[in-house]
Amino acid sequence: MGIILDKLALLFLCVICFSFSDSAVISVAGLLLLVIASSVAEVLRGNRYCWLFPLAYSCGCIFLPELVCGAPLIVYDSLRMKKWWAALPLCAAVFRLERFGHVQLLIILAGLFTAAVFYLRVFRLEEQVGFLRSMRDEVAEKNLELDDRNRELADAQDNEVRIATLRERNRIAREIHDNVGHMLTRSLLQSGALIVINKDENMKEPLEELRSTLDSAMTSIRQSVHDLHDDSLDLRRIIEDSASAADERFTVNLDYDIGSDAPAKVKLCIAGIVKEGISNAIKHSNGDKLDISVREHPAFYQLLIMDNGKADSINETGIGLKNMRDRAQSVGGFISFTPSDEGFRVFASIPKNKEKV
After folding, report:
1. To pair with 56 at 20 to 30 A between CA atoms, which of 125, 175, 176, 353?
2. What is the predicted pLDDT for the residue at 159?
3. For residues 179 and 176, what is the distance between their CA atoms, to the nearest angstrom?
4. pTM given for the model
């Protein structure tokens, strides 16, 4: 809005200056050309050729000096477009000043001064707007970085809580196994001994029931311990710990996407294959990059281990490869080994089959 008011004020000065011209036709034509040149330049502002219209009007002053009455508005447009040289042809009117009255010259000079003042004000305003925009962008970038940092901290905190929970589960499982389990085992042995040495037929049935109850309790405790242990298996951490052994030789990239509810046998199978695959890469690969991908799909789990070392052939009779194959087959899975000039690849697929796992 401020730009429009500035241009209207300068146009008003130009109209007054044109009104002192001897020819009404030249005044009207010159004013019309001025409005067209300034309006089109404003509409096309930002276009690489918008400066052509102020330049064309300025060049017209060479042939028609009376057009210099529109100099304030043309100079203002040229300065705003950072094309000040587009108004230079207006200087040709200096050699024909006798065609202007004193009042016209004063109005033109006043208009040029006003155009310079208006431009300086707009220039400072644009600088402030640019500074504020840069500050806004910087603040927005800092906020994004802060959000990312907060998310990382939250994830790290969640991971610490999860690790602490798993450790506590392991501790409870060990306590139950070492204390309650041993006590129940001792009670089972004692009840068995009592049944053997018992001669009273009336005590035979109660002792059998006691032994059955203790056996059921032992089975329940054993299942609970196994469940706690299975839930405490942190497959990602196991893989990361295994991969840390290869950090000195390889750049390890891990792509992990498996839910925490994966069966324990599947976790142990994947962990065993990953450990064996990393060990083989350290022993036999001449590469420097190791990619490990562990992903869960709707119907199966997928494992991919690949290094960039050259491998022409493989020894299928090797113990390491046999162990990996046996692990995959133990959970109903499939595994393949692919050597090539681009590297050695281990690919395993384990179906989500409840009966087999």
Report:
1. 125
2. 64
3. 5
4. 0.42
